[in-house]
């Protein structure tokens, strides 16, 4: 009947359940790859970058939560931009989401290949790229068959990842006690870049580490599934960020303290497997293999989830006409956005060809910071009666994102700005054509 209330999800999740959901969405490529990249920029001060990144993520998470509470639709900031700002900013958010998450997926594929090769003692950059491409192709085909992510599979992956990281921290403590003082001092020494200002290096590293926290948007959209959402969601976001930050700090201390920032950085850029290289210094037999298994599992899960998520955003943008209409269609059975999945797989494969996790992760950092800057801007436009948190939180999130976005390498943010301009030109052409049909 027309006046009936649509069926609602059961409010089964409390704070603990929401935190577990958040951890499952956050912990992955970031901890296994980005700490090594950031350590190569800030040295031991990557530990400080991890903490600052968490604080910025808390601001963004709270603003995402109040946007989700006021405009409960799929599509994230792409939809919030249209609703609270204007079509140009809505499109830019969607466009930057595609760039950011495609770059993250490429990093996950390269990370998977790096840890797999290192587990077998192989170091070959051409083979690294080839295996990463195969991983992207296989996962893309799996998704095209209609197989979707399973909550059970996600829980298993999170469990394995947390066990692996816990093992890394415990197994690395003996090495830390003997090598830590040497490798963690001086704290503000920049690895391989002694001429770089230490404060500059920390901000650059923070921009890269911030991406390792993205995924908190999953908590922000749990309004229909949690008990007392106005209390539970902010509490879950803050506690999830604190737990993740403490875990990341512990991993950063153990990894840098065990082998030093230079070795960790080299392992990240040349092998895409920094924690496995750090684990070679541990006294427990089989440590590198255990870390490799956890990383491989985590990054395959990340790759699967990112291709699924990206294809759905491409689907939504295709339906609205922000991307070619062909991407807005489904397959014959109506279960999969066939062309959206294909184009996402091709885009990720193209980024994999770069073959450098620092470059792909940096592209992801700039794009995701611009995306969340628009998120914070949209939250400023929420009417007073719908606001959950003070405007100051939105301002802090907005200014932090814009500030950090331009601490990545100049060629990265210049390329990113070029992609924004190219996207807006396409958007203008698409809208003009649509209006004349």
Automatic annotation (TrEMBL):
InterPro entries xref list: AA-permease/SLC12A_dom, APC_superfamily
Superkingdom field: Bacteria
Keyword Disulfide bond: no
Compartments, as annotated in UniProt: Membrane
Keywords noted in UniProt: Membrane, Transmembrane, Transmembrane helix
Transmembrane regions: 12-35, 41-62, 88-115, 127-147, 154-176, 196-216, 236-256, 290-315, 336-355, 361-381, 388-406, 412-430
Domain named Amino acid permease/ SLC12A: residues: 17-406
Membrane topology summary: Multi-pass membrane protein
A GO BP annotation: transmembrane transport
Keyword Cell division attached: no
GO-annotated cellular components: membrane
Pfam families with a match to the protein in the record: AA_permease
PANTHER family: AMINO ACID TRANSPORTER-RELATED (PTHR42770), MEMBRANE PROTEIN (PTHR42770:SF7)
Protein name, UniProt field: Amino acid permease
UniProt source species: [Phormidium ambiguum] IAM M-71
